[in-house]
Amino acid sequence: MEEPTGLFKDLAHALVQALDAWAATVGQVTDTARRPTRAGLVAELERERLEFERAGRSRKKIDLPLLSYWLKGRDQLLPGSKKNRLPGQEDCAAIARALRHKAPDSARELPQIGAEIADLARRLKEVAGPGWRDAVLASLAPATVAAAHPVPEAPALPTTPGEPPKPVRRWRRWQFAVATALAVGLITGTMALRSGASEGAGAPAGDSASAADLKGDHRCGRVRAVGAVSWKPCTSLSEDSLSFVVQLDNSSSRAVTVKVRIGYVRAGAAHDCPAPWGTAQEVTIPAGATVTSPLGGCAAPRVPAQAFQAEAFVVEQNASAWGYREYSPTVHIQADGRPVWAGRV
Predict the structure, then answer these.
(1) Strand pairing partners for 225?
(2) Distance CA 315, CA 322 (A)
(3) pLDDT < 70 positions in the chain
(4) Which of 72, 277, 284, 288 has its CB 3.0 to 4.6 Å from that of 297, i.e. a possible disulfide?
(5) Is 186 within 8 Å of 140 (Cβ atoms)?
(6) What is the mean pLDDT of the chain?
(7) pLDDT in the model for residue 210
(8) How far apart are CA 298 and CA 112, in angstroms?
(9) What share of the chain is helix, strand, coil (3-state, %, to 5)?
(10) Model pTM?
(11) If we measure between CA atoms, which residue out of 287, 286, 233 comes closest to residue 260?
């Protein structure tokens, strides 16, 4: 394949985010400590498929190896890996039906993610031809991806003579994702927040993310994922203002740096926030930590008879395009100043 174009790189970046988002959306509700399990989900999918067959309809089979393959996220695209089909719109619709009672939020998200994956895959094939899959990760990390391979299983723990090897538990999904992302140079981390450990630690006001949780009247949008970092946009209310923030959670064993951009929508019109949060702010999330952008980083007056919602982008530190945007729920400020959140009475 020829040198990837700027369009190919942007599409590739969007696709790896979509695949990671799919893995996060399904993976977070099929952990073995929760219900449904992966095996239970596959059983429900097969039950529906057989019902379809009896009714003269058809649907592609989704078995446990294929589901596990999809839960690798972007790692499905590693050069040399088996090329199963990517999760398509039909697949996502079937999984959404299986999850609609036990995981309604994930069920609502999956069809949109599936449509995004299908559209991006189609456009990448149009741009680069049949070999586009092998070129996706290479276009994002050309210096190292040629040597990247799926992470091997960890060796068995040492045992005493005559004792059978002790099984080693597989890494959790996010640990596996981080290890592979590190191998292809897509994640860079340090062990401290970029502008200080907390707000006010020698940094300009409003520049630093902190570990503080949101309190008071607030609502957050759906969770997206960038590698090991899951994130969501939130709108928080005070007596005279609204704050638009992003919460970021790092489930890996290493610090991860991402790039954040926040804006907001007021009365249907998009507004940029002041720099740095409204342009491009790098945030490093320590291992296993959750951080929140500062309330003062992006705020607007609480104006009556207006509707507001946060708008946010989160991408890898070195990303050349912003990829997905996500919104918080809309809050309608009534003429008397009373807030009413969309979807609530």
Answers:
(1) 230
(2) 6
(3) 1-4, 31-35, 141-213, 343-345
(4) 277
(5) yes
(6) 77
(7) 61
(8) 28
(9) 35, 20, 45
(10) 0.47
(11) 233
